[in-house]
Design a protein that fits this description.
5 helices, globular, mainly alpha
Length: about 100
């Protein structure tokens, strides 16, 4: 959990920085925050609930991993999170349009 709290602000800065105030490249943001950017494809903008999701995404991962570690299932949860996140990131790259270039 503590690691996820340290990673979150760094990831947010990298993701926002990669967007370059709309003049950059969204690739890093699409990799780090695929759920939030997929919402932009669906709703034509990033809405407040999905901004909140981006802020809490890595702490949620930390909570899930911590709970799984207590239950002796850390490896399985790590794999699950990697697969789900990877699928979401891949989906984001597949549906990205000219607004994300």
């Amino acid at each position: 959990m503590i690691v996820s709290l340290i990673v979150t602000p760094i990831a947010l800065l990298l993701g926002v920085g990669s967007a370059g105030a709309g003049h950059g490249d969204y690739r890093l943001a699409m990799i780090l925050f695929p759920y939030t950017l997929l919402s932009a494809v669906i709703f034509d903008s990033i809405t407040t609930p999905f901004i909140i999701l981006a802020i809490i995404q890595f702490p949620l991962y930390g909570i899930a991993l911590g709970h799984a570690n207590e239950k002796g299932r850390l490896i399985w949860m790590s794999i699950l999170l990697c697969v789900v996140h990877g699928v979401a990131s891949t989906a984001m790259f597949l549906v990205a349009n000219e607004n994300f270039s």
